[in-house]
Design goal:
Length: 299
Amino acid sequence: MNELNEKAQKWLDMIGRPRNYHYERHLRLIRKIETDEFDGELYEQANGPGTVQKTLLMLPKTVDTKRPAVVVPFYYPDRVAGYHLDTLEPTNEPVIAFGLHLVRRGYIVVTAEAYHLTYCKMDHDRQDFSRWKRSAEALLQDHPEWTGIGKLVADTQLLVDLLCSDPRVDSNRIGIAGHSLGGKMALYTGCLDARIKAILGSDFGIEWDRTNWSDLWYWGDKVDELKAAGMDHAELLRIGGLKPFILIAGQYDNEDALDVIKRAGYSDPSQYLFINHATGHRPPMEVLERCYDFFATCF
């Protein structure tokens, strides 16, 4: 085993794997959605023993040939789609509606609920952040050998499975894009899944101390082990093969993030893009447009 493979295995060992986590894979169409900007298919997708994640497939209004596709992980589909799926009214969060931006550009897009909505049954509103702690505690009680980041990656890889099985998708041209929480999910899934060809992340905190990696629903106390072992996201990007990578910095990432990209081994300007808009957590639309233009050249 070469050094890179050994390091990859070390990351996988740290992420962990659940035991007794067998379940039948299934995908059930709930309903079809039509807006002026895209057509949608809302599914229930099995994502664990006895659990499902609501999954939205967003399609351009005309799909007459195999299309490139993008996985856009986030809290729940409405915010990515830019529409409340129950009412089809706008969400009024235009700059984080990455799925809507990308389907406008002709991509097929898939997004789903994160596990704070799927792992445990709760009466809490889906925007109640306490869901994350309770879900992570339950996950780790059931599977102490796993991690929250492992669960996030496993559920996101199911979305890649869905794209690869859809005849409308060019499975050789799949990217991943995410903001904040979604950026964390994009980084890990993009680096660990060879089917993903390019990664776009927005202000997710690429350095351990820039954001909440030590929260239980990500790495928990294992962050200290990762630091002690000298494992960081520059190494993770190398393990992923230095795929085309876009990082938008704003608040939780700053100019130091460029050093991480360079330490990973990126040197060819055609393989990475770094923009620090420094205006807060959410990126300006003009920055996103520049990133989407670059993204289109990557796969």
